[in-house]
Amino acid sequence: MIFSYFENFDKYLFLKINTVWTSPVLDAILPWWRDKNTWIPLYIFLALFAFINFGKKALPWFLFVLATVAIMDQLSSHFLKEYFDRVRPCNDVVMRLKERFLVRHRPQSGSFPSSHASNHFALALFSF
User: Nearest CA to 68 among 114, 111, 127?
Assistant: First the structure.
């Protein structure tokens, strides 16, 4: 019963954000922001920053960052998504009729947890 409450609230909130609380500025920015290629300059900057400031001492840090992100990516993509098996709103038959689509790419994998958010969180947690 409690799970159905959260699922219904989640759908309600998603539709509210997607159809009512809209912004043309955010509609233009967020699809670009979610593209993985957008973040490549940040990754290059972080790597250069580490190597310029710490020299060879940065190599173990860099390798552990890669390992941390790889582990989190595998954990979120293959274990947690399969465990929770939550359908993405764009793949839900009922939700598809009500939502606005701002991007063409609609992954077929589960939607929870977000792999890119998990990876960025792992990177931030390890870095600080």
Answer: 127
Predicted structure pTM score: 0.67
For position 14, what pLDDT does the model report?
A: 81
Distance CA 100, CA 87 (A): 17
Tokens of 78: 């293959």
pLDDT of residue 25: 92
Alpha-carbon distance 78 to 97, whole Å? 29
At 107, is the pLDDT very low, low, confident or very high (cuts 50, 70, 90)?
Answer: low
Which has the closest alpha carbon to 89: 78, 103, 72? 103
C-alpha separations of 72 from 26, 43, 96, 103 in Å: 28, 17, 30, 25
Helices 40-54, 58-74: crossing angle, 10 deg rounding? 150
**C-alpha span between 99 and 31 (Å, rounded):** 15
pLDDT at 20: 84
The torsion angles phi and psi of 106, rounded to 5 degrees, stand at: -125, 95
